[in-house]
Design a protein that fits this description.
Length: 276
């Protein structure tokens, strides 16, 4: 996710991503935010090389799902300027529609590399493209949060096909909400269909912290923010901090925020899955 420091430690699943070497033993007890990348800068295709472990999951109905429903990203949509900067709440870019990527070229690889760069620089363990102002369906993450260590994962046009019925709480942070941490309930495990950096299709399952990071970032691609999934009680506990970010945005831009915490619509865990 575009997260900041995680306050609740969790055991990484033994799910290994095909193009990476498992280094889960290197995980610290207190895991950092959702954002980080490969020290070598290389991206390896891992289609047809991964067989996910068996996992009890809940089949998510893909109501009305069709790739034709998603707008395709143009060259202009994928344009960016380095260094990338984190987009903070309540910037409308965090709620904008994110387009499907169909061009897998050097520009995309450069964007991924820059996303990892800003993720590591801001002490994150995951990051989605809309969090850096690029509204496309792309996320990167590394649960270890250290360059050259752990699993560095790139997902293009991800889609949740299954998720577990069991929900677990976790204290999340988000780079788009600096200094704010609060509990969020999410499915313990998920199964995902996506494309890699070369455009190859693949599917895999994940659980624990890895699944948590993915779900946080996937929400960003759906225009869903982590406080949308919080209970009213939890959200009330961070209301002052959210209102401070709203005022910061208004002071910086001279524009009134398009959304405010007082108009929040809560989303239950799992709602919004099944779309890429």
């Amino acid at each position: 996710m575009a997260c900041s420091t995680w306050l609740y430690s969790s055991t990484l699943s033994h799910v290994l991503f095909p193009f990476l070497h498992s280094r889960s033993s290197l995980l610290p007890s207190n895991i950092r935010s959702f954002h980080r990348i490969n020290g070598t800068g290389g991206f390896i295709s891992f289609a047809n090389r991964f067989k996910p472990p068996a996992m009890a999951v809940h089949a998510q109905a893909k109501r009305g799902f069709s790739l034709k429903e998603d707008e395709v990203a143009s060259i202009d949509d994928l344009f960016f300027e380095a260094p990338l900067k984190i987009v903070e709440y309540p910037d409308p870019l965090l709620r904008a529609k994110n387009k499907r990527i169909t061009t897998f070229d050097e520009n995309l690889k450069k964007l991924v590399a820059e996303m990892f760069e800003v993720m590591y620089r801001t002490d994150g363990i995951g990051l989605s493209a809309p969090q850096v102002g690029v509204n496309v369906q792309l996320m990167v993450f590394n649960p270890v949060g250290e360059r050259g260590e752990g699993e560095e994962i790139v997902l293009v046009n991800p889609r949740v096909s299954n998720y577990s019925k069991k929900l677990v709480p976790f204290t999340e942070g988000c780079l788009s909400f600096p200094g704010i941490n609060a509990d969020v309930m999410r499915p313990q495990s998920v199964k995902v269909d996506a494309r890699d950096i070369t455009g190859a299709r693949f599917s895999f399952s994940m659980s624990g912290l890895t699944a948590r990071v993915f779900q946080h970032e996937f929400d960003h691609l759906q225009g869903i923010l982590f406080f949308d999934r919080m209970t009213d009680e939890v959200c009330d506990s961070i209301r002052t901090e959210l209102e401070a970010l709203e005022k910061k945005y208004e002071d910086k831009t001279g524009l009134p925020p398009r959304e405010r915490i007082e108009t929040r619509k809560r989303r239950k865990a799992g709602v919004g899955f099944g779309k890429s």
